[in-house]
Design brief:
Number of domains: 1
Strand content: 15-25%
CATH class: Alpha Beta
Helix content: 25-40%
Structural class: alpha/beta
Order of helices and strands: EHEHEHEHEHH
Number of helices: 6
Shape: globular
Radius of gyration: 16 Å
CATH architecture: 3-Layer(aba) Sandwich
CATH superfamily: HUPs
Largest sheet: 5 strands, parallel
Number of strands: 5
Strand order of the largest sheet: 3-2-1-4-5
Distance between the termini: 58 Å
Length: 170
């Protein structure tokens, strides 16, 4: 029997509980989920290196052999083809996400009709959680522990207690 494989792409800078919700729910739909940390030149400078993001995600999912964490750059549909994935998992928080995600899904479909995009609505409790908002709050000493996994929260504390904004929080 062929296993169903999906790619869950993103920057995950940092991974949030909203991402965790998507991965957990995605595992109910697919036999294997590949979390692909993509390089997006349109996004500003990353807070965490790709290696740090991989470490954090691998630590979180160390007891889930059906979750793989990898780095990827290039066309997502080409990556999916190489990995044997027939689906790309995407989360939608609000209507504003839909337009961009719809355009990406249509372009991916045009490039490779064998790879489908599957949309899941974000859990209500995570609808306003994004990596950008978490980073901004953490930058200024905000308590984000309810929005990120414990290991990510610890890394944020370490990053900002020793970072350029450490003096401003005192």
């Amino acid at each position: 029997m062929k296993k169903s494989i999906a790619i869950y792409p993103g920057s995950f800078d940092p991974v949030t509980n909203g991402h965790m919700d998507m991965i957990t729910r995605g595992l109910k739909l697919f036999d294997r989920l590949i979390v692909a940390i993509l390089h997006n030149p349109a996004k500003r400078q990353a807070l965490f290196s790709v290696e740090e993001r991989i470490e954090m995600l691998e630590e979180i999912f160390k007891d889930h052999p059906n979750v793989e964490v990898e780095e990827h750059s290039g066309l997502l549909v080409d990556y999916a083809e190489v990995k044997g994935a027939r689906a790309i998992l995407r989360g939608l928080r609000a209507v504003s996400d839909f337009e961009y995600e719809f355009q990406m899904a249509m372009m991916n479909r045009r490039l490779n009709r064998n790879v489908q995009t599957v949309f899941l609505m974000t859990g209500l409790q995570w609808i306003f959680t994004s990596s950008s908002i978490v980073k901004e709050a953490a930058t200024f000493g905000g308590d984000v522990k309810s929005m990120v996994p414990a290991n990510v929260n610890q890394r944020l504390i370490e990053k900002f207690n020793n970072g350029p904004f450490a003096d401003k929080k005192k």
